[in-house]
Amino acid sequence: MIAPDGTRYGNRMEFLRIEQPALLEVDHGGDAADDPGKFRMLVTFDEQSNGKTVVTLRQMHPSKAQRDNTIGFGAVEYGVQTMNKLASHMSAA
Length: 93
Prior knowledge:
Helix content: 25-40%
Number of strands: 4
Distance between the termini: 22 Å
CATH topology: TATA-Binding Protein
Largest sheet: 4 strands, antiparallel
Strand content: 35-45%
Structural class: alpha+beta
CATH class: Alpha Beta
Radius of gyration: 14 Å
């Protein structure tokens, strides 16, 4: 991830479940073996009748405090950044 100030943050993802073409379940955290900020992420892909796909990202944190900290850090904005990169990639394909 790249912050607005240009800082690069390492990430580590462990894919727990892949159900093509509808679902990804991932443990997501920093690039460390035992990251205390790690959380579970669920990504669903729902095809619409108009041929478009709705992508939904859900984060499940082990505590409300960790969730609040992650949101305060910018998780929503970084999620939008990730979705914008995905859209650019898909439109170029």
